[in-house]
Write a structure and sequence with these properties.
Layout: H1 2-19, H2 27-36, E1 42-49, E2 55-59, E3 66-67, H3 73-87, H4 93-104, H5 108-117, H6 120-130, E4 145-146, H7 148-156, H8 167-177, E5 195-203, E6 212-220, E7 224-233, H9 236-254, H10 264-272
Antiparallel strand pairs: 1-2, 1-7, 3-4, 5-6, 6-7
Helix pairs in contact: 1-10, 2-9, 3-5, 3-6, 4-5, 5-6
InterPro entries: Beta-lactam/transpept-like, Beta-lactam_cat, Beta-lactam_class-A
GO molecular function: hydrolase activity
Protein name: Serine hydrolase
């Protein structure tokens, strides 16, 4: 009986361990922040474990999608790199210059040049379809509507072993995202050490009340992806402050020192005493 019990317990522990996620669920913290903050902003947020794909999402309204703003520029560069790979070509000097300006400084003119080069709407739609993300391109690329979880899947291409991007392309994009202009280093980088990010902000043209869309998205410590999309902010800075608070709470929760797990055999022996 004891041998059978040991085998059963060992298998049980192994299965549980293999399915465990390394990220903590920050949705309760996010709810508390929204409750304490005097804001009419709509928030959709998502965190994704890079190792397991486990995802936690949060919305404070029925709104499921928000304009991507400049966070879409990561999609433009990923699509370009895949096209270059398929053609067996390297980026030209001009393409590198535009990619740098588009990601590091969020330059819209540079983004427009590369968006046109990949085929505009069709190029982005083909890219999203190829990675299994259902997004419909808007008339102007920054106004494209998406969920935070969809943006996380796009960033997951930079780490996923099944990604269409090769190692060189992944490293190039991550390098640019890790050297964002200092004036744009906010959002998901708040309370984190090693971050590759891309933020976005714009007036919500559909709202007609001068409110702002303020978004932040990035990869934290090579462990998880965090995206926070907001709309209905009274102004740019108010939106940045809100996104920073939500990001700081999520990052703080992930950085909590985990208790070292007891070994499988120690736990088994304890049960058999």
């Amino acid at each position: 009986m004891r041998k059978i019990l040991i085998i059963f317990l060992a298998n049980s522990f192994i299965v549980t361990s293999a399915n465990a996620s390394s990220i903590q669920n920050p949705t309760t913290s996010w709810k508390k922040i929204i409750k304490k903050t005097d804001t009419d902003a709509t928030v959709i947020a998502s965190i994704r474990d890079l190792s397991t794909g486990k995802t936690y999402t949060y919305r404070n309204s029925q709104t499921k999608k928000i304009m991507m703003a400049s966070t879409i520029k990561v999609s433009i560069l990923e699509a370009l790199m895949i096209q270059k790979q398929n053609a067996g070509e390297l980026l030209t000097a001009d393409e590198k210059g535009n990619a740098t300006q588009m990601i590091i400084n969020s330059d819209n003119d540079a983004a427009t040049v590369l968006w046109t080069e990949i085929g505009g709407d069709d190029g982005l739609n083909n890219f999203w379809q190829s990675i299994g993300v259902k997004i419909t391109q808007a008339t102007y690329f920054g106004e494209t509507m998406a969920t935070a979880s969809q943006q996380n899947k796009i960033l997951d291409q930079l780490y996923n072993t099944k990604s269409l991007l090769n190692t060189t392309s992944k490293a190039y994009i991550l390098s640019l995202m890790s050297h964002i202009s200092e004036t744009q280093d906010w959002g998901v980088s708040t309370g984190a050490k090693d971050v590759a990010l891309k933020n976005g902000w714009m007036t919500d043209y559909n709202a007609n009340n001068g409110t702002w869309i303020v978004n932040s998205s990035g990869i934290i410590d090579d462990k998880y992806i965090l995206t926070i999309y907001t709309t209905g902010n009274s102004d740019y800075q108010t939106g940045v402050t809100l996104v920073n608070k939500l990001s700081k709470a999520a990052n703080k929760q992930q950085n909590k020192k985990a208790t070292t797990p007891t070994s499988i055999w120690d736990r088994i022996k304890a049960l058999l005493v």
